[in-house]
Amino acid sequence: MKFLPYKLLAPALALLACSTIYGCKPGKAGSSVDADAAQKVYVAPGKYDEVYAFLSGGFSGQVAAYGIPSGRLLKVIPVFSQNPENGYGYSEETKPMLNTSHGFVPWDDAHHPELSKTNGEDDGRWLFINGNNTPRIARINLATFKTAEILELPNIGGNHASPFCTENTEYVVGNTRFSEPLDNNKTDNPISSFKQTFKGAVSFVKVNKDNGAMNLAFQLIVPAFNYDLAHAGKGPSHGWIFFTCYNTEQANTLLEVNASQRDKDFIMAVNWKKAEELIAAGKGTKIPAKYAHNVYNENTHTATSVIETETQTIDVTKFPGLVYYMPCPKSPHGVDVSPDGLSIVASGKLAAIIPVFSYQKMLDAIDKKQYDGMVEGNIPVLKYEAVLRGEVKKPGLGPLHTEFDDKGYAYTTMFVSSEVVKWKVDNLEIIDRIPSYYSPGHLSIVGGDSKKPYGKYLLSLNKITKDRYLPTGPELAQACQLIDITGNKMKLLLDFPTIGEPHYAQMILADKILKNKVKFFKLEDNKNAYVTKSEKDTKVVRNGNRVDVYMTAIRSHLAPDNIEGIKLGDEVYVHVTNLEQDWDVPHGFAIKGANNAELLVMPGETCTLKWVPGLAGIVPFYCTDFCSALHQEMQGYFRVSPAGSSVPIKFSIGENPVTQ
Ligand code: RUQ
Ligand code: CUA
Asked: In the 8-state DSSP scheme, what is residue 481?
């Protein structure tokens, strides 16, 4: 995220005595922490942290779970990227999770983790996250910390304003960063036809209340701008959702200059309740589309991928009252809604103030038709003065994102001036500021985007670290800074490096997640097509050149552990069932020379490794996870014979071989 061009920033930066983004070494004065900081982040060995923080991995495509306040990394949850550490995206069961309309896409750029909400509060059930590159939304089950579903979104490029959810997780949304021609209009369009043929599409993905299942309910076809971020209304403003848009100039080249021409861009306000009614009344238009819908079934421990072929759309220019634009200075990025649902805070990357819009004034302006022109002839632009509640003056440089605490304060990150600024939501007065090392993007407060923030901790997610840690070659880690927000003045407690780029994080009280935790999968409920529920059922079956190995793992052996009769040219599928029924006893499985990753099989689960032997000979396999004192004994051998050999399939463990 380096979207602030030098040319535009130069004047602003001149104001700074020492600009951090050019790498001159800032004084470390601000690094000083209070004497009690260590005590506030110290979580004694064996004790749990109070809070889970879920950080996006950015270009790692994954999500990382940390404990707060200790900053301890608890788990990397694989989502959009293959993960050799546990076989996600490598095992036969999980490969379908990464299927798309473009085929297998084993990577993405994940920006915004979003906790599911009930009555506007984090409920601890699911975590959603967007894939920015090949537009997708994933849902992670927080009982298992596994990715449960991935839905591709058609008609959009760069799913950045995503996957923000409505007050009761009725919908998660996905909006386009790169407007482009709709998928059914993908003829050979010249790029210069941007204004005529390019469109934006706002996806509303319906989330099933009971099981979280996602479905693309409808898409609003909107003018071709760059849509950046979103937040839904809550309480009184429930039923609306707000998106920032930049590049309202509709430039298709050199955006750093051409998309920074206008003094104001827009916040797009969408009445989604109304859209829902229109769809229910049959006003939607079905258009062909192609997008993958991948679901991981927790009983079969297997994912399936279906390609969907249609989407319902609404052209917003045809339905007055659905969409309004509010002018917003200048190239807005974040848009955030206060806990009471009444104030809408936008952050213009190039603006010198933070505009705060009033939901009530917006309704009044709509009522009184206080318009300042139309977009595409039909979508009203509301008058800035009519919808503005006020401006936070002189907040700093490069405001990006705002979250809220439980005491009526808002906190905004300043990318360019590298600080977090605290201000009062009712009178818009600045109370405090604290340096950030360096250039914060998002920030996160426990429950800070919900109706009932918990407050206490703030994470500043910093893009640049420079001199903060021991150097690691040209690439340095991004960082998180933990700030205590219980007092009047913010206090730095801790900073720690992260994996990938933590664009955004969500923090939730651990208790809300702990109550649902799954410790292992019940073997009796395992419906995997290749499950082996006891050692006596293990077998090796040949069918043409396909060989299925039904294997079990339990401390401390893999069964069978002597397998013969495999031939060059065979495709071998090893289905490993972990028979353990206890917490924290995974078994791993790896084969020498396999052009694949390992498997890491949870207790009660079945996972399948596909292996195509490349050489004849003896090939060892073993458990990779140190599971018991005799883990090193947990091993076996395949015998691979030349193609055409007549060695029969034989398999055994601890006894004379059984011949098939
Ligand atoms: S972004 S640094 Cu991709 Cu959410 Cu704002
Ligand atoms: Cu099982 Cu090591």
From this structure: E
CA dist., res. 269 & res. 254, Å (int): 27
631 lines ligand 2 (CB under 6 A): yes
441: left (phi over 0), alpha (psi -120 to 50) or beta: alpha
Cα separation, 349 vs 222, in Å, equals: 23
**Residue 589, Ramachandran bin (φ over 0: left; ψ between -120 and 50: alpha; else beta):** beta
Cα–Cα distances in angstroms (integers) from residue 39 to residues 33, 36, 43, 462, 507, in the given order: 11, 5, 8, 23, 21
Query: Nearest residue CA, atom 1 of ligand 1?
Result: 503
This prediction has a pTM of: 0.94
Instruction: State the pairing for strand pair 114-118/226-232.
Output: unpaired
Q: What do you get for the CA distance between the two ends of the chain, in Å?
A: 59
Nearest ligand, CA 439: 1
Q: Give me the chain's average pLDDT, please.
A: 93
Where would I find the beta strands (DSSP E) of 233-322?
A: 240-246, 264-271, 285-297, 302-315
- The answer to whether residues 588 and 599 touch, using CB atoms and an 8 Å cutoff, is yes
3-class state of residue 458 by DSSP: strand
> What tokens were used for 316?
């917003």
Question: Who has greater pLDDT, 12 or 300?
Answer: 300
**Cα(259)–Cα(228) distance, rounded to whole angstroms?**
13
C-alpha of 11 from chain center: 35
Q: Quick check: CB of 625 below 6 Å from ligand 2?
A: yes
Residue 112 CB–ligand 1 contact under 6 Å: yes
Rounded distance from Cα 228 to ligand 1 centre (Å)? 8
Which ligand has an atom closest to residue 130 CA? 1
Point out the ligand 1 atom lying closest to the alpha carbon of residue 333: 5
Phi, psi angle pair for 140, to nearest 5°? -100, 135
Pairing of strands 571-578, 650-652: unpaired
Helices (H) and strands (E) in the chain, counts: 8, 46
Assign 3 a pLDDT band (cuts: 50, 70, 90): very low
For the chain, give the number of residues.
660
Which pLDDT value is given to residue 656?
57
- Whether the upstream peptide bond of residue 560 has omega within 30° of 0, thus cis, is yes
Average the pLDDT over 148-163 and give the result.
97
Atom of ligand 2 nearest to the CA of 588: 1
